[in-house]
Protein: L-lactate dehydrogenase complex protein LldF
Amino acid sequence: MSVQTFTPREFHRQAHDALGNPQIRANFRKAMDGLMTKRRDVFSDWDLETLRELGANIRLRALAKLPDLLEQLEANCEANGIRVHWAEDGDEACRIIRGICDSHGARSVIKGKSMVSEEMHLNAHLEEAGIEALESDLGEYLVQLNEQTPSHIIMPAIHLNTDEISEILHDKTGTERSRDVDYMTAAARAQLRERFMAADVGVSGVNFAVAETGTLCLVENEGNGRMTTTVPPVHIAVTGIEKVVEHLRDVPPLYALLTRSATGQHVTTYFNMISSPRKEGEHDGPKEVHLVLVDSGRSRIYQDDELLDTLRCIRCGACMNHCPVYTRVGGHTYGTTYPGPIGSILSPHLMGLEETKDLPTASSLCGACGEVCPVKIPIPDLLVRLRRESVGEGRGNVAGAGVKRTRKEAAAWKGFEWMATHPGVWRSGTALAGKLQALMPAKLAPWTDYRTAPKPARASLHALVKQHRRRQQTDGSEGENRS
Structure:
């Protein structure tokens, strides 16, 4: 299977290629339809809006106190025996993790699912240092074998169908070609079990970090997270600074929203709570636990009272599952760690708006992402904000903002604004455009590079309504005359 490289700068070309790939479209359509149905059904007996409001308030309260909560989290983790490290960016986080590995002479790392580690390219950094890093989440394991990146933040291998997965396992691990899902899962489990036992260090993500108790919470279905955090002698948890919550009682509502929004489950198979390394008399668990808190532009987001809402995200992926753009082009098209609607508002902060300027426009602004977000992030509003900044308007707080419109484009929009605010001119102009529709050019670059050229209607809606009313009056008068 060929391996492709994706970049946000090539979003339009990559989207065109994905739309021309019937297999990708079929894989995503089938998967997304199922996830949307499961989410709808699992919330059918719940007061969803009240729960969403509660989830949003919990996240907003945590963000309002973020600096204090991070200090509280550090103090309680250290009191529990968890060593806390601070990283300004992904590179520093990688150096910290490598340093911990080097101090233990580690040559192999087993990883649980962690989007932050994907964001900072931890695997590549460790491999450059001669340290093998193996993904243990089944989806992550498959895309790693295939030399790809995840295409979804919850289901990394959702772009692959059964036959493609079978071929990957056969080519990379020697298993028999099969369409038996149980056989393939068992084969992968057997391959990974040996690696868990031999790994020097386990690396995981964090779903919720509880400041009140110094507890790290991990949500998972496969048990790989529990193996990663208990079998190796050293456990390193890595997370963005926004994942902190104030109280332990804040976790259950967020957990209920996360599992139902992500996979349509009432609960996941495993919910892990880590508060310390192995204590005296305990028979399992790591001898050391480290927590690496990563900034990577999150502090800059925190300073903006609008874009701050981006940090509410609990990484459920519901916005992707319901997005008409994502479900047709897939996650790799975006060329970023976080694809879909949430990625389109988060990636500009992590990579700069100049690098990702096409992503805020990768939306129909239908509003589905905002409607299903379990913590009520106003994603459509933030997309519009970033669109303005990408053309040099708005507040310009995003790194790399300030790409200017051409003079021709600016003049065109100024003319449209003037027409749209003068009703008489607008009516005359649209009427004339309807009569001259045959002269409308078939190509209006760059609009028609990705869209069908619009054609004005022969008559406006207002004109059609007036015609209809005149016919009704005429028919009514004729009926009275006949009677």
In short: The chain has a mean pLDDT of 91.
